[in-house]
Structures are given as C-alpha cells and as structure tokens.
TrEMBL record:
<feature type="compositionally biased region" description="Low complexity">
    <location>
        <begin position="118"/>
        <end position="131"/>
    </location>
</feature>
<feature type="region of interest" description="Disordered">
    <location>
        <begin position="104"/>
        <end position="142"/>
    </location>
</feature>
<protein>
    <submittedName>
        <fullName>Uncharacterized protein</fullName>
    </submittedName>
</protein>
<feature type="compositionally biased region" description="Acidic residues">
    <location>
        <begin position="132"/>
        <end position="142"/>
    </location>
</feature>
Length: 297
C-alpha cells in the first residue's frame, strides 16, 4: 500500500497544479498526502509514468531557496528571534568548527560519496538508468571535499516582515513539510512481545504505514539554543517501532559539522541502540499537528 501515495501523487498533482497555480510544489504535495491518509488502504489503479513524476519534481517552491544550489548536506533554520547576539555567536562557532573539520582532512584522502538518506524507494518513481556519460560526471564529484557542510538560514534577514513569523517556533514536522519531500513507507515492525500503539498516528503508524520525508538534513535553532548552544536534529522517519517521523534530539554546536559529515558521507546512523531517547515534548507537538497543515505551507 505504500506505493499508493506515489500513484495518487502522479494522478492528482496535475489537477492541483491547474487549480492552485499560485501555490508551490510542497503545498500541493501536502494536500495530496492529506487525501491519501483519509483512506490509506484503498487500491489506486494509476499507470506510473516517470516522466510525470519528473515534471512535478521540477516545479518551483517558495522554500527551495533554503535547500537547493549549494554544497551543504544540512541546513540550520533559525526559529527564535529573541537574541541576535546569541544566534550570531552560535553561527560563528558553527562555521569555525566546520572550517577546522574540513581543513583537518588531507586533500589526498579520497572522499567517500554521499550516502543515500532514509529510504523512500517505494514512494518515488524509479529514476532512469544512468548513461555512461552520467556515470562519468558523477565519478568526477567523488573524492571532492565539500566547501561547506551546514547551511544557515536566518528568516529575519528577509525583507518581508511577515517571513520570520512563518518560521517562528515551528515544529519539526512543519520544518520537514516546508523543506523536504513527503513519502509513505511500511511502518517499522512491532518488536516481539510488543503491542501496536493504541491511537494510530501517521507519524508512527496508521494502517501499518508511516509518513516519511527525504531531502536535506534539518537542524533547528530554537529559544533554548540561545542558552544551551544546541540545535535540534530532526529525523526524517521513525527509528524503531513507537518512535516517530520528526523526532529530534539536541546536539551541541561544536558537534554539528562532524555529525552532519559522518551522516552524509560515512553512512553513520544515530539510533541510540534501539532505545527511545528522543525529545518527547517535541514528539508530542508533531503528533498533535500531524493531521493539520499550516496555511502558510
């Protein structure tokens, strides 16, 4: 049933594009995702056409500026605007640590190719096979050290006064919906002797499926960051059964560049050994918001 979302997306996206030309790609995708979750077990008989998927994947989105056209693998989003000095100090230290990390890597050491993020293969039409020319182009990028690891997005620098309000104190889930691409996958298996959650939620499990996201890694600078000098690292999908898409934990600014580098290029996964050690307060905010899409998205 997980691939039903992809089929629905291919079928309904042209309709939403025609009816809502003023909105961006992710706004339309989220409305179609809502349609999917209204009846996730239905059978959708739609011919899969990779050309259609490629067409809408190239549609513009107002938040693409934060996650496109750059070497970075992660993006730090400012969501608290109460202390400019603390934020600037945080960013300065982040970039200093990032530069020290990159400078410490010997230029003659081959760079591993970036690893694929959370799998949503069942939710995305297969890409066409690479040609020999494509393979040659991709091989040229391997072994090249990135010039930056984490991008910083500060909405307060935008000329539109209302722009910062869009980002102010957003949940992890809203950040994923704004900056990543949605998908649906089978939910993680229930552990032996365990029970399914009493109240199904699409971020954990509904109809044995789970809402997931793919794209650039998201770090969130919030009000706590002003004093604890940490940022929330947002998970694009649940880990073990019972954890949720959008779960997060806090990482110190001094650790962020290395964590991002290792996740992107070394395939490191952070799962706390299968234990649920994520921030429950942030999870609750996400779960409460799961069935509601902000109008600003």
């Amino acid at each position: 049933m997980a691939d039903n979302f992809t089929k629905l997306l291919v079928d309904r996206y042209p309709v939403y594009r025609a009816q809502y030309p003023q909105h961006g790609r992710r706004w339309r995708q989220q409305r179609i995702l809502q349609e999917f979750w209204e009846n996730p077990t239905r059978v959708i008989d739609v011919s899969m056409d990779a050309a259609d998927a490629e067409d809408f994947s190239e549609d513009p989105d107002p938040y693409d500026f934060a996650v496109t056209d750059g070497p970075e693998a992660g993006v730090l989003i400012r969501t608290d605007f109460s202390d400019d000095a603390a934020f600037q100090s945080f960013c300065t230290e982040l970039k200093e640590v990032e530069r020290e990390l990159l400078d410490s890597m010997k230029p003659d050491e081959p760079m591993p190719a970036p690893t694929v993020g959370p799998s949503t293969a069942s939710d995305t039409p297969s890409a066409p096979p690479q040609s020999a020319e494509d393979e040659d182009d991709s091989s040229d990028d391997e072994g090249v050290l990135p010039s930056a690891i984490v991008r910083i997005v500060d909405p307060s620098t935008d000329a539109r006064p209302s722009f910062r309000e869009v980002f102010r104190d957003i949940t992890n889930l809203t950040a994923l919906r704004m900056l990543n691409e949605p998908g649906v996958r089978p939910a993680p298996p229930v552990p032996h002797g365990g029970k399914r959650i009493a109240q199904p939620n699409r971020l954990i499990e509904r109809a044995r499926l789970q809402e997931v996201y793919s794209g650039m890694t998201i770090w969130i600078y919030d009000q706590k960051s002003n004093t604890d000098r940490c940022a929330r690292l947002v998970n694009q999908q649940g880990d073990v059964y019972g954890t949720a898409t959008g779960d997060s934990w806090r990482a110190r600014v001094t650790h962020i560049p290395e964590l991002q580098f290792n996740m992107t290029y070394m395939g490191m996964q952070i799962n706390f050994g299968g234990e649920d050690r994520y921030d429950y307060a942030e999870r609750k905010r996400n779960l409460d918001e799961a069935d509601n899409i902000p109008a600003s998205l």
